[in-house]
Design brief:
Elements (H helix, E strand, L loop, with lengths): L1 H21 L5 H10 L4 H108 L3 H15 L7 H34 L1 H26 L3 H20 L15 H20 L12 H32 L5 E3 L2 H10 L5 H5 L4 E3 L4 H21 L5 H29 L5 H16 L1 H12 L13 H29 L16 H16 L5 H23 L9 H19 L16 H12 L2 H7 L12 H18 L7 H27 L1
Antiparallel strand pairs: 1-2
Helix pairs in contact: 1-2, 1-3, 3-4, 4-5, 5-8, 6-7, 9-12, 9-13, 12-13, 12-14, 13-15, 13-16, 14-16, 16-18, 19-20, 22-23
Family: Belongs to the SEC15 family.
Function: Component of the exocyst complex involved in the docking of exocytic vesicles with fusion sites on the plasma membrane.
Pfam family, one: Sec15_C
């Protein structure tokens, strides 16, 4: 029996050895295990077989080594021979390299000298070029100094102009040029002061010698007149020629008067600040004329008229107040008749008609084909026309006061400012507060005020064309359209936020939750879907508003909706809430989050809008997952998953759910799961109360 068993195991051991040699090491374990699972002496026999196999392999390895040993010895011998040749080659290469280095040192020195010379040559060329640019500037500046020393101020001003426009831009990168540029305004101011001093001296001289100047001028005029009459009689000169001779008289008189003012120079008379000198000269000459024409104390015409002018100014103020009241009614009528919709334009004729009444420019709109719409409503061109009519009405009275153009310009601008800042602003604010003005109308009002604000510069040009007083004049009053319409826009924006929140409240009041439901409906509440559809449509209208206004309105609406939903959930009159109602409420909040994620108004960064619902989301997640252990363990930690959940809020909602659980489980109190859940709720309630009490004591 034993010999039979031995014969059977030998082929099996050979198979196992073949598997060990051929298979992967990871599969050896099961193969070896089969040795121990066989007959009791199989392990000893297997080891004997394994030793015999190892000896066979050792013999094969020894044969293999003997076979390749002679080749290995031959390779070592060849390497030893090559070693000697390699050492000789190394010596030769080292010697060649040394000789190359020695030969190249002189070349390197000469190359460095050449490079140094080339750099010096290039620097010299650059210096010469820069000096050629700088020399004309220095020559012109030296010429300017000479002209200033010689009191040739007009020539000096011309030289300054050439320096600024031609020479300085070429060398503006150098510091000496910057010093020259900074010095030019001081030189100009010196010229202005010196010229003003000369002008004052000249006017004072005219005042002292006015009698002689007038006498000389009258004599020369009389002589010229007599000479013209004699010449006409002798030669029968035409009328046109006589007129020409007479026209020369003022020029000759001007030469007599102005010759002492400025020096005779090659270039021309000094100009300086032309407008300043001209105004000063006229002002002083008017004063001198008043002094000359002032009546003596013994004449029957020297009565003062200041009180009469004061009375006229008071009448003017009352007239302006009357105009303001009248135009307040005009503005109210315009606002009442407006439909607060963009102006439809059917053809080119209608477009030109509107543009002729109101200065509107939009290249993109002009490229569009008809029919098209202008962004403003009908009230905008009507308001613009009525402001111009007010300016005309105010001008009629101001013209009768015989004031200067500058004073009339100032009166018109002040009256127009009163119309904008008081009358029109008040009408706009009253319009915005009216109950029948809805969100669409408020959006249109904001657009209208933007275009009216842009039109204020055209009103300033309109006044300038009437009075011929430039807007660049120092004392010219500006129109306050910017502040007027900016305040109106802010008021309209605030009213938009208020009305939008009121509309949200109206939808929320339609909510009809079954707070005791056992299971949710599986879809969002109808009132909420209607509210979201309303918000989508209204935010489409907001696309015409500035981006910041639309974003603020959208964020305000989402925050208000989130607050309203939270208040509904925590309402003190709501005593019990089932988990089914919480799940239904969660479906509604999900719709709110989807709405926020759909970017109803462009421009929000990331999930900024979704953060409006973060308080609700974390609170509902806490109750849906029932993750009270995490909430209580991480409370107060900055990285808490439920960081926005207030313990007082969680306690209020949990107590409402606890009361519902007690009521529903009155007959199921003997079931273990229900008892455990109730105990868990009571434990969490105690821990939350402890947190709330701790917070109140700390406060």
């Amino acid at each position: 029996m034993e010999s039979g068993e031995g014969l059977g195991t030998v082929p099996e051991h050979e198979r196992i050895l073949q598997e060990i040699q051929s298979t992967d090491t990871a599969c050896v374990g099961p193969t070896l295990r089969s040795v121990y699972d066989d007959q009791p002496n199989a392990h000893k026999k297997f080891m004997e077989k394994l030793d015999a196999c190892i000896r066979n392999h050792d013999k094969e390895i020894e044969k293999m080594c003997n076979f390749h040993h002679q080749g290995f010895v031959d390779a070592i011998t060849e390497l030893l021979k090559v070693r000697t040749d390699a050492e000789k080659l190394k010596v030769q290469v080292t010697d060649t390299n040394r000789r190359f280095q020695d030969a190249g040192k002189e070349v390197i020195v000469q190359t460095e000298d050449i490079i140094r010379c080339r750099i010096q040559q290039r620097n010299i060329t650059t210096v010469v070029e820069k000096l050629q640019l700088c020399l004309p500037v220095l020559e012109m500046y030296s010429k300017l100094k000479e002209q200033m020393s010689a009191k040739r101020y007009y020539s000096a001003l011309k030289t300054m102009e050439q320096l600024e426009n031609v020479y300085f831009p070429r060398v503006s990168q150098y510091r000496f040029c910057q010093l020259m540029i900074e010095n030019l305004p001081k030189l100009r101011e010196d010229i202005k002061e010196i010229s003003m001093s000369d002008l004052k001296d000249f006017l004072e001289s005219i005042r002292k010698h006015s009698d002689k100047i007038g006498e000389t001028a009258m004599k020369q005029a009389q002589q010229q007149k007599l000479f013209s009459v004699i010449l006409q009689k002798q030669n029968n000169v035409k009328f046109g020629k006589t007129v020409y001779i007479n026209d020369r008289i003022p020029e000759e008189r001007n030469e007599i008067v102005l010759k002492p003012v400025f020096e005779e120079e090659d270039e021309n008379e000094e100009e300086g600040d032309e407008e300043t000198f001209e105004n000063y000269y006229r002002k002083q000459r008017k004063k001198q004329a008043r002094l000359v024409l002032q009546p003596q104390s013994n004449m029957g015409y020297g009565f003062p008229v200041n009180r009469l002018f004061d009375l006229l100014f008071e009448i003017r103020d009352q007239y302006n107040e009357t105009l303001l009241k009248k135009w307040a009614g005009v503005f109210r009528d315009i606002f009442e008749e407006d439909n607060y919709s963009p102006i439809p334009i059917v053809n080119e004729e209608e477009y030109k008609t509107v543009i002729s009444k109101f200065p509107f420019q939009d290249p993109d709109l002009e490229k569009q084909s008809f029919p098209k719409k202008l962004p403003m409503s009908q009230s905008v061109p009507h308001i613009y026309i009525q402001v111009k009519e007010f300016i005309y009405a105010s001008l009629k009275f101001s013209e009768s006061l015989h004031r200067s153009s500058t004073e009339i310009d100032d009166m018109l601008r002040k009256s127009t400012n009163l119309l904008l800042t008081r009358t029109l602003s008040s009408c706009l604010l009253n319009l915005i507060k009216k109950p029948h003005i809805g969100l669409t109308e408020l959006v249109q009002i904001i657009i209208n005020t933007t275009h009216l604000e842009q039109a204020c510069k055209y009103l300033e040009d309109f006044i300038t064309n009437i009075t011929n007083i430039s807007q660049e004049t120092v004392h010219t009053t500006r129109l306050y359209g910017l502040s007027t319409f900016k305040d109106a826009r802010h008021a309209a924006e605030g009213e938009i936020y208020t009305k939008l929140n009121q509309k949200i409240d109206e939808f929320v009041q339609l909510a009809d939750y079954d707070w005791t439901m056992s299971e949710p409906d599986g879809r969002a509440s109808g009132y909420l879907m209607d509210l979201i559809n309303f918000l989508r449509s209204i935010f489409q209208v907001f696309t015409h508003l500035p981006g910041k206004v639309a974003q603020t309105a959208c964020m305000s609406a989402c925050q208000h909706l989130s607050t309203s939903l939270m208040q509904m959930l925590l309402d003190s009159e709501l005593k019990q809430i089932s988990m089914g109602a919480v799940q239904q409420f969660n479906l509604d909040v999900i719709q709110c989050e989807l709405f926020a994620n759909s970017e109803p108004v462009p421009g929000f960064q990331g999930d900024t809008l979704q953060l409006a619902f973060i308080d609700l989301r974390q609170l509902l997640d806490l109750f849906m997952v029932w993750d009270w252990s995490t909430y209580l363990a991480d409370y107060g930690q900055p990285a808490s998953k439920y960081l926005r959940v207030n313990p007082n809020t969680a306690l209020t909602l949990l107590e409402k759910i606890k009361d519902t659980s007690k009521k529903n489980n009155i007959f199921a109190q003997f079931r273990k799961n229900d008892r455990d859940k109730q105990k868990l709720i009571e434990t969490v309630v105690k821990q939350l109360r402890s947190l709330v009490n701790g917070m109140s004591q700390h406060t």
